Amino acid sequence: xxxxxxxxxxxxxDDIILDLRLWTVGDFEDFLTAVxxxxxxxxxxxxxxxxxxxxxxxxxxxxxxxxxxxxxDLQPLLRAVxxxxxxxxxPGEDS
Length: 95
Known about the structure:
Elements: E1 17-18, H1 25-37, H2 40-50, E2 51-53, H3 71-89
Antiparallel strand pairs: 1-2
């Protein structure tokens, strides 16, 4: 039986720009719920509120453009948001 070769698909773009100060506490709570529930529509809506620039096709301020991203683009986006969240709760701590 043939086995699939697993190839890393994630790059680490440094040019994802976001401002978490644009979220309310309720938005943050909705983000956590959406991540845990794999709710990509809600993730797109919430991320479009805070991400102002990315190195991918489309416009990060348009929620529908998140559904057009490649699978490999999701991890760096979520990593950027998680890094910003970590800085709020654990400032100065390295990941």
